[in-house]
Amino acid sequence: VEYLQSILETADFKNNVIHTRWLETQTQTKHVVTRPTDRNAVLLSASYIAWHVLSDARKGFLSQIERGRLVDVADTEGLQRHNVTLRYQSNKYNVIAFLTGPSTMNLRLGEYCYGPVVVRELNTSK
């Protein structure tokens, strides 16, 4: 996790100018990597889980509409919000993720709200 966090924080990754050789140079370069705080680890994990659950729900909903199914209000539940429960370092965390845009969400952990979390997915198609 620490290694991935250091990769995700590099300017090259943020600017999407990475390639295989770049990754190899990163693995050969010795980085001082610090362990993320428990809160950051939980928020990163929850955002990953929630994003994929909400994306799958959205794809399923759109598929039903494309097949001509009539939409009911109950069908829209789960498209904007997802509850994530995680255990980390012997603690249980409940995080609520709310979509706020096509690629953004806010996370609520306890009384605090974090965000917007901007999600960028790598384009794997060529």
Structure report:
The protein is of the alpha+beta class and 126 residues long. 39% of the residues lie in helices and 25% in strands. It has a 4-stranded antiparallel beta sheet with strand order 1-2-3-4, covered by helices on one side. The chain starts with a helix and ends in an 8-residue tail after the last strand. The model has no long low-confidence stretch (mean pLDDT 85).
Task: Outline the secondary-structure elements.
Blueprint: H1 2-8, H2 11-14, H3 20-28, H4 38-66, E1 81-88, E2 91-101, E3 104-109, E4 112-118
Antiparallel strand pairs: 1-2, 2-3, 3-4
What key attributes describe this structure?
alpha+beta, 2 domains, four-stranded antiparallel beta sheet, ACCA, acetyl-CoA carboxylase activity, 4 strands, 126 residues
Quickly count the domains. Answer: 2
Mean pLDDT: 85
Please give the largest β-sheet: 4 strands, antiparallel
The residue fraction in helices comes out at 25-40%
Total strands: the figure is 4
By DSSP (H or I, 4+ residues per run), the number of helices equals 4
**Span from first to last CA?**
28 Å
Q: How big a fraction of the residues is strand?
A: 25-35%
Structural class: alpha+beta
Global shape? flat
Briefly summarize what is shown:
This protein has helices at 2-8, 11-14, 20-28, 38-66; strands at 81-88, 91-101, 104-109, 112-118.
